[in-house]
Amino acid sequence: MSKLDGKVAVVTGASKGIGAAIAKALAKDGAAVVVNYASSRTGADAVVAAITAAGGQAMAVQADVSNAAQARGLIEAAVKEFGRLDILVNNSGVYEFAALAEVTEAHYRRIFDVNVLGVLLATQAASEHLGEGGSIITISSVAASIHPATTAVYSGTKGAVNAISGVLANELAPRKIRVNVVSPGYVVTEGTHTAGISGSEMEAGMVAQTPLGRAGQPDDIASVVAFLASDDARWVTGEDINVGGGVR
Question: Which of 26, 83, 173, 184 sits at a 20 to 30 Å CA gap from 215?
Fold first, then answer.
């Protein structure tokens, strides 16, 4: 018997990168998984296909979690299809860096809407269906603690979700729902390739600052999330777990 057998999980922003790896890891451990996507239906369908080909259960659901009605619709679709909800992984996020002089209202609102409001709305909707033993995991970033230049807005969103998660860990504890944060360091994804970071001097610099001496991979993050989603982490709540090869 796998450790997540009978559980149902929603993973936001799961069409690629870290989110896709998380969805596959949860399914491998036995959970039925709702693969959320905002725009990449092709990517989400590929994740669902990989899960079902391996014998798991999954479905793709489009939703912009920064929209209250869509966030609620995502959770309701999961409960309608699979009959319950046990795990929410708040992975949806955008990153766009700008020096102070280049910060605009549109830049601020776009990043805060997805990275912070999206977490609140998805968690609010999910909390109505989570029961005792439920697990909420939000993907943050070591940027919230190491403060890289030109990331004032992005790092601000991650500091915000860290604080929000700490509050919700206390607020939901009486219902025996656990709330934790996973903070990755530098991870190679489709996004880092598209942004030109992979293979660049910037990447080399980040690896050089990583005590374990390599870039992270999506599976490095997914395995920690799978642990937090399971009963193996039944006594873990209110934590921010850095998963960055020693960067802090």
Answer: 26
Distance CA 10, CA 136 (A): 10
Domain count of the chain? 1
The answer to whether position 117 is within a domain reads yes
Question: Cα 240 from chain centroid?
Answer: 13
Q: Tell whether 248 is covered by a domain.
A: no
Beta strands across the sheet bearing 58-62:
58-62, 32-37, 8-11, 87-90, 135-139, 178-184, 240-243
Decide if 14 contacts 26 (C-beta within 8 A): no
Question: 191 CB contacts (<8 Å, ≥6 apart)?
Answer: 16, 17, 95
Quick check: is 165 in a domain? yes
Buried b (16+ CB within 10 A) or exposed e, 61-94: bbbbbbbeebbbbbbebbbeebeebbbbbbbbbb
Choosing from 37, 95, 154, 186, the catalytic residue is 154
- For 83-106, the pLDDT digits (tens) are 999 999 999 999 888 999 999 999
Domain-located, residue 126 = yes
37 noted as active-site residue: no
pLDDT digit string, tens, across residues 160-205: 999 999 999 999 999 999 999 999 999 999 888 887 888 888 889 8
Tokens of 133: 């033993």
Domain that holds residue 231: 8-192+218-238
Please report, for the domain that includes residue 91, its CATH number.
3.40.50.720
- Are residues 141 and 244 in contact, defined by beta-carbon separation less than 8 angstroms? no
